[in-house]
C-alpha cells in the first residue's frame, strides 16, 4: 500500500484499528501522534502565509503619496486601487470556497501563493504610463489571496476542538494586523532606503516563494475534514493505503446551491456577516486613507512641508504601521481571551463582545477625526484605541461562524461571508472616501485647508458605519443560541 502522508483522523468512536505498515497481517492498534506535534507545523505555515497576504494587501496605502505623484492620479483614482483589489478578492472567494470544500486544499493554497507572488513581482516593473495595468495587477493579486483566506481557517477548524480552536484562530488572525502593519513599514522603509517605491513590491514575492516551499514540506497532502460524527477523533500519523480511508471519514458532498440555501436561513450567519461588512468598511477606509489624512493634518498645522518630489515623507505610514501591529496583537489576543471566559457563563457573549467593541471603536474614531487639526498626538491615541477595539472582533466573528454553521459547508460559509462583507465593506469604502473627498474639494479653491477638511469629512462616514455594525451584532445575539444548536445537530 502507498503511504498516506496526510493527517489522518483515527476513528476511535467506531473502535477501528489499522495496521501500522503495509503487508503486516496482524491488526495492531495505530500509534497515536500527539496533536501538537502534527498540528503546530501546519499552523505555523498558515500563520506565515497569512502574514504575507496581509503585508501585500497594504503595500499601496503605505506609499500612497508616492504612487499618486508617480502616476499623477487624484484621491478617487488612488482609492480605486484598493477597491479593484478587494472586488477581485471577494468575487474569487466563493469559487475557492466551493473548491476548498470539495478538492485538495494544499494544492489550492499553493496555487494561490504562486499566483499572487508572480503578479506582485511583475507589477513592480511598470512605468508611469501604465496605471491601468497596475490597477489590474492589484485585482489579480486579490484573486490569488482569496484562496488563502477561505481555505486556511477551515484547516484549523479541522485540526482543533472548539476550546483550543479559538486560541489557535486568535493566533492565526493576529498575523492579519501584524502583516498589515508590516506592509506599511516595508513599503515606506523600502521607498525611503532605495528612493524608489517599486522595490516595496519585490520583497513579498520572495517571501511568497519561501512560503510555497514551507507549504510543500510541512503541510500534509491530505487533512481529514471534521464532521459531526467524529468530533472526538484524534490525529494519527499511521501509514494507510490510498483506498483504506473508512467511508465514515468522508464528508458528504452537497451542491453549492444547497449550501447557500441553508446559510441564507441561518440568521446568526446573516447578521454577523453584515456586522463583519461594517467592520471591513471601516478597516478598509482607515487602512487606505489614515496616513494621508495624518499628513494633511500635519500640513495644515505646519508640522511638515508639502511633498514636492519623491520619495515623500513616510513617517506617518511607519507610525500607523507600528500602531496597527501593536493594537492588532493586543486586540485579537484580548478578544479571544474575553470570549473564552464569558462564553462559559453566557451563551450570547460573543456577539455582545463584538457589538460593544464596534460602538466604542466608532466613538474613538470620530473623536480622532475631530481633534486632528489641533492636536495630532491625541489623534494618534484615539486612532490606536479605535483600531484596538476593531481588532477585538476579528477572531471572535470567525469562531461565531464556525459554531453556527454545519462543518460540511464551512469553506462555503467563509467564502460567502468574505463576498458579502467585502461587497458591502472595503470593496467600495476606499473609493467612496476618495470620491467624496474629490467632490468636497471641487466646491472651493484648492488649498491645504480644503484638502484636509475634505478627507476629514469623508472619513466621518466610517464612524457612522461602525455604529451600524454594532447594531448588526446585537441582532446576531437574538438568534445565536438556536442556530448553534441546529449546527451541532
TrEMBL record:
<feature type="transmembrane region" description="Helical">
    <location>
        <begin position="377"/>
        <end position="402"/>
    </location>
</feature>
<keyword id="KW-0472">Membrane</keyword>
<feature type="domain" description="Major facilitator superfamily (MFS) profile">
    <location>
        <begin position="42"/>
        <end position="481"/>
    </location>
</feature>
<comment type="similarity">
    <text>Belongs to the major facilitator superfamily. Spinster (TC 2.A.1.49) family.</text>
</comment>
<dbReference type="InterPro" id="IPR020846">
    <property type="entry name" value="MFS_dom"/>
</dbReference>
<keyword id="KW-1133">Transmembrane helix</keyword>
<feature type="transmembrane region" description="Helical">
    <location>
        <begin position="414"/>
        <end position="433"/>
    </location>
</feature>
<keyword id="KW-0812">Transmembrane</keyword>
<keyword id="KW-0813">Transport</keyword>
<feature type="transmembrane region" description="Helical">
    <location>
        <begin position="168"/>
        <end position="187"/>
    </location>
</feature>
<feature type="transmembrane region" description="Helical">
    <location>
        <begin position="458"/>
        <end position="480"/>
    </location>
</feature>
<dbReference type="InterPro" id="IPR044770">
    <property type="entry name" value="MFS_spinster-like"/>
</dbReference>
<feature type="transmembrane region" description="Helical">
    <location>
        <begin position="318"/>
        <end position="339"/>
    </location>
</feature>
<dbReference type="GO" id="GO:0022857">
    <property type="term" value="F:transmembrane transporter activity"/>
</dbReference>
<feature type="transmembrane region" description="Helical">
    <location>
        <begin position="351"/>
        <end position="371"/>
    </location>
</feature>
<feature type="transmembrane region" description="Helical">
    <location>
        <begin position="42"/>
        <end position="60"/>
    </location>
</feature>
<feature type="transmembrane region" description="Helical">
    <location>
        <begin position="269"/>
        <end position="290"/>
    </location>
</feature>
<feature type="transmembrane region" description="Helical">
    <location>
        <begin position="107"/>
        <end position="127"/>
    </location>
</feature>
<dbReference type="InterPro" id="IPR036259">
    <property type="entry name" value="MFS_trans_sf"/>
</dbReference>
<dbReference type="GO" id="GO:0016020">
    <property type="term" value="C:membrane"/>
</dbReference>
<feature type="transmembrane region" description="Helical">
    <location>
        <begin position="133"/>
        <end position="156"/>
    </location>
</feature>
<protein>
    <submittedName>
        <fullName>SPNS3 protein</fullName>
    </submittedName>
</protein>
<dbReference type="Pfam" id="PF07690">
    <property type="entry name" value="MFS_1"/>
</dbReference>
<dbReference type="InterPro" id="IPR011701">
    <property type="entry name" value="MFS"/>
</dbReference>
<feature type="transmembrane region" description="Helical">
    <location>
        <begin position="199"/>
        <end position="219"/>
    </location>
</feature>
<feature type="transmembrane region" description="Helical">
    <location>
        <begin position="80"/>
        <end position="100"/>
    </location>
</feature>
Amino acid at each position: 500500500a502507498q503511504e498516506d502522508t496526510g493527517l489522518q483522523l483515527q476513528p476511535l468512536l467506531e473502535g477501528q484499528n489499522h495496521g501500522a505498515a503495509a503487508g503486516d497481517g496482524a491488526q495492531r492498534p495505530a500509534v497515536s501522534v500527539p496533536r501538537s506535534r502534527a498540528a503546530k507545523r501546519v499552523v505555523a505555515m498558515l500563520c506565515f502565509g497569512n502574514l504575507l497576504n496581509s503585508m501585500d494587501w497594504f503595500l499601496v496605502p503605505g506609499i500612497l503619496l508616492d504612487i499618486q505623484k508617480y502616476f499623477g492620479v487624484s484621491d478617487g483614482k488612488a482609492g480605486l486601487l484598493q477597491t479593484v483589489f478587494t472586488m477581485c478578492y471577494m468575487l474569487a472567494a466563493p469559487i475557492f470556497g466551493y473548491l476548498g470544500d470539495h478538492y485538495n486544499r494544499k494544492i489550492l493554497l499553493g496555487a494561490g501563493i504562486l499566483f499572487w507572488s508572480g503578479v506582485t513581482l511583475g507589477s513592480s516593473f511598470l512605468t508611469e504610463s501604465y496605471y491601468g495595468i497596475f490597477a489590474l495587477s492589484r485585482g489579480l493579486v486579490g484573486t490569488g489571496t482569496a484562496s488563502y483566506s477561505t481555505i486556511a481557517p477551515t484547516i484549523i477548524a479541522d485540526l482543533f476542538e472548539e476550546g483550543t480552536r479559538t486560541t489557535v484562530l486568535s493566533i492565526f488572525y493576529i498575523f492579519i494586523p501584524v502583516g498589515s502593519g508590516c506592509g506599511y513599514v516595508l513599503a515606506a522603509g523600502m521607498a525611503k532606503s532605495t528612493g524608489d517605491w517599486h522595490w516595496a513590491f519585490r520583497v513579498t514575492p520572495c517571501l511568497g516563494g519561501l512560503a510555497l516551499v514551507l507549504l510543500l514540506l510541512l503541510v500534509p497532502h491530505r487533512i481529514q475534514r471534521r464532521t459531526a460524527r467524529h468530533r472526538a477523533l484524534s490525529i494519527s500519523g499511521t501509514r494507510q493505503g490510498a483506498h483504506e480511508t473508512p467511508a465514515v471519514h468522508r464528508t458528504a458532498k452537497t451542491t453549492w446551491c444547497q449550501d447557500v440555501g441553508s446559510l441564507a436561513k441561518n440568521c446568526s450567519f446573516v447578521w454577523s456577516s453584515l456586522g463583519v461588512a461594517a467592520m471591513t468598511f471601516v478597516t478598509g477606509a482607515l487602512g487606505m486613507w489614515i496616513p494621508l489624512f495624518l499628513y494633511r493634518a500635519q500640513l495644515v498645522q505646519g508640522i511638515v512641508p508639502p511633498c514636492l518630489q519623491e520619495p515623500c515623507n513616510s513617517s506617518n505610514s511607519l507610525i500607523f504601521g507600528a500602531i496597527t501591529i501593536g493594537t492588532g496583537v493586543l486586540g485579537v489576543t484580548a478578544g479571544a481571551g474575553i470570549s473564552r471566559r464569558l462564553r462559559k457563563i453566557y451563551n450570547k457573549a460573543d456577539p455582545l463582545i463584538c457589538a460593544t467593541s464596534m460602538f466604542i471603536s466608532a466613538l474613538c474614531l470620530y473623536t480622532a477625526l475631530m481633534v486632528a487639526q489641533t492636536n495630532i498626538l491625541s489623534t494618534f491615541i484615539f486612532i490606536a484605541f479605535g483600531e484596538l477595539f476593531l481588532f477585538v472582533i476579528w477572531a471572535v466573528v470567525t469562531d461565531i461562524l464556525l459554531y453556527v454553521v454545519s462543518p460540511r459547508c464551512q469553506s462555503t460559509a467563509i467564502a460567502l461571508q468574505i463576498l458579502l462583507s467585502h461587497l458591502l465593506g472595503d470593496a467600495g469604502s476606499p473609493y467612496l472616501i476618495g470620491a467624496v473627498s474629490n467632490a468636497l474639494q471641487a466646491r472651493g479653491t484648492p488649498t491645504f485647508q480644503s484638502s484636509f477638511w475634505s478627507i476629514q469629512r469623508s472619513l466621518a462616514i466610517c464612524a457612522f458605519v461602525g455604529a451600524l455594525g454594532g447594531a448588526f451584532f446585537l441582532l446576531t445575539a437574538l438568534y445565536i443560541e438556536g442556530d448553534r444548536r441546529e449546527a451541532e445537530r
